[in-house]
Amino acid sequence: MHLVRLFKIAWVIVHFGLDEFLLGHERVHGLRWLCKQLFFWRRLSQPRAVRLRLALERLGPIFVKFGQVLSTRRDLLPGDIANELALLQDQVPPFAGTLAVQVIEASLGQPLAALYAEFDLQPVASASIAQVHCARLFDGRAVAVKVLRPGIAPVIESDLALLRTMAALVEKLFVDGKRLRPREVVAEFDKYLHDELDLMVEAGNAAQLRRNFLGSDQLIVPEVFYDWTSRQVLTLEWMDGIPIGRIDALVEAGIDLKKLSRFGVEIFFTQVFRHGFFHADMHPGNIFVAPDNRYIALDFGIVGTLSERDKQYLAINFLAFFNRDYRRVATAHIESGWVPRQTRIEELEAAVRTACEPIFDRPISQISFGQVLLRLFETSRRFNVEIQPQLVLLQKTLLNIEGLGRQLDPELDLWDTAKPFLERWMNEQIGWRGFVANLRREAPQWAALLPSLPRRLNALGDAEQVMVAGYYGLMREQRRRNWLLGAIAALLAALVLSIWAG
Fold first, then answer.
1. What membrane topology does the UniProt entry give (predicted)?
2. Residue 137 needs a FRET pair 20 to 30 A away by CA distance; which of 19, 281, 393, 454 works?
3. Residue 181, phi then psi, degrees to nearest 5
4. Could you tell me the sign of the dihedral formed by the alpha carbons of 439, 443, 449, 450, in that order?
5. Beta bridge pairs of residue 278
């Protein structure tokens, strides 16, 4: 199986002329002439970026997904390739509805007629991992039933094995390989894919996001019906809305686009900084708009999480960026360990200023985060910035937010929308509100610690006495050794003098 897949990949590489990516490296440059002679029949008229995109589409959905992830890594790819990979569309023909029924019955352990009052065999959406059918429960509630594509797991495992091999080669062959950590990127991709293969994981993600935004006037998350959910089947509340990309339909429905664009920014920063848990696949196909001007989130297979340390450094960087305090951006990168300690702050500050200053005081229609990120990643090469794999999804999500904002309201002022939110969040974390919140969080620990505090202090005192006694013992031993060394030295000196005098 692996061998057949490897031969197919090799054929696609040759057919689309992707060998030039490898043969451009000095270690294998001598093979370029040989390949030209062997593959004389090729006619490579299209640019390399286009040929790479077409090759990934030919190799199938897993490589398409990987190309989509790579399109966000402008630290790893030249601009022309990253832009072209961003055009990849994960559109896969649906599998037969009868096969979906077989998966549902085998997974949930009951006949379809006992599970759903109605079930449409024709899917309403189809992707590389699963497809979605419309159904109705016996209590009348409309639901969306997501069914895992049969036989997809072995295909994914085979392709992931090949991607790991390719990542190892990139790390060994290219100068920037270790800094860019391609194997860690593949490992992250591996994790996301396996999460998507277990629909119970997606159900948990949806339930968590729904709890985080319960009662929100900005975002709706569908309810999960766990009695009709398994690793291969996910049943969610059916959501009616207008796809976010249909601007004309939104305007016709009376949706306030400016308000919607502002909601998008606030939802993003709420997920990242307040919850540390964010929907990481917010492309237009996964976002609908309800009649009451709220967003509807769909497809929860990919989510991102951030630690408190990540959130703190991100908030510091964002606020410093909004205040044009480029020196604080530089020091925050050094403090976080993303930049080597020996980096000169003044040089990093000047590089960040050069990349970011031109975009201020402009509406979002005149700002491209892609270009800003590209400049920052070019700076990262110069300063040996270690790319943080846990932030790749955050970067991808931010780019999606940029695209949505530009579509809905080209005049949206991102800074004015985001800055008050971040200032409020920092006050909650570092100000008096943060102090009170931390006391509440730590109260159970203090309740358990206080009764045992006298015993612990006493034990600490005993330990200190032992340490002090040991210290004085060492001092006495050192003084004794010093006296012996002094005596020996004196004897040797006397012996040398007597020999010299004699």
1. Single-pass membrane protein
2. 281
3. 50, 60
4. positive
5. 304
Task: Of 331-335, 421-425, 449-453, give the lowest mean pLDDT range.
Answer: 449-453
Give Dmax (Cα) for the chain: 119
pLDDT of residue 499: 44
Distance CA 414, CA 359 (A): 11
Contacts for 142 with CB less than 8 Å, ≥ 6 apart: 134, 135, 136, 237, 238
Contacts of 373 (CB under 8 A, 6+ apart): 74, 395, 399
Amino acid at 474: L
Q: Taking each helix axis from N to C terminus, what angle separates 61-70 and 48-59, rounded to the nearest 10 degrees?
A: 140
Give the tens place of pLDDT for each residue, 139-175: 999 999 999 999 888 878 888 887 888 788 777 766 5
Rg over CA atoms, the chain? 30
Whether pLDDT at 500 is above 50: no
Question: Strand pairing of 295-297 and 219-220?
Answer: parallel
Altogether, the residues listed in the chain come to a count of 502
Both tokens assigned to 486: 């002094």
Return the DSSP state at 42.
Answer: -
pLDDT digits (tens, 9 = 90+) for 246-295: 889 999 999 999 899 889 888 988 998 889 899 988 777 789 999 999 99
Catalytically annotated residues: 281
Q: Does 146 belong to an annotated binding site?
A: yes
14: left (phi over 0), alpha (psi -120 to 50) or beta: alpha
Give the sign of the dihedral formed by CA 48, CA 53, CA 58, CA 59: positive
Flag whether 125 is marked binding. Answer: yes
126 is in an annotated binding site: yes
Asked if 68 contacts 85 with a C-beta cutoff of 8 angstroms, the reply is yes
Residue in the block written with tokens 């996910």: 234
Q: Which of 116-125, 357-366, 369-378 has the lowest mean pLDDT?
A: 369-378
Hey, where are the domains in the chain? Answer: 2-91+154-190, 247-430, 457-501
pLDDT surpassing 90 at residue 323:
no
Q: Show the tokens assigned to 459.
A: 């034990």
Summarize the confidence of residues 468-492 as an average pLDDT.
Answer: 49
| Alpha-carbon span 334 to 60, nearest angstrom | 41
For residue 69, give both structure tokens. 């992830």
Tell me: is residue 155 an annotated ligand-binding position. Answer: no
- The whole-number pLDDT of residue 489 equals 45
CA separation, residue 401 to residues 181, 396, 475 (Å)? 26, 9, 66
